[in-house]
Design brief:
The chain is mainly alpha-helical. It is about 35% helix and about 0% strand. It contains 3 helices and no strands. The longest helix is centred in the middle third of the chain and has 12 residues. It is globular.
């Protein structure tokens, strides 16, 4: 998930450390920005394996909105 967020420009590579879930998390901030840009509820929650956020992140990068 972090690799996809980096590829889309939502997360800086130096923050892709494999850790998600701390209250002050660059990854959760990136998830929220991705959700907002891609028409999802911007709640900072990546959800489970079948969540809309994870399903959307699994789409080909060309079909996703990149960070601005």
């Amino acid at each position: 998930m972090q690799d996809r967020l980096v590829a889309l420009g939502y997360l800086e590579a130096r923050h892709a450390d494999g850790l998600v879930g701390r209250s002050r998390s660059a990854t959760l901030d990136a998830i929220q920005a991705f959700q907002r840009s891609n028409g999802l509820k911007p709640d900072r929650d990546p959800g489970g394996p079948n969540s809309q956020t994870r399903q959307r992140l699994a789409l080909p990068i060309a079909k996703l909105v990149r960070a601005r």
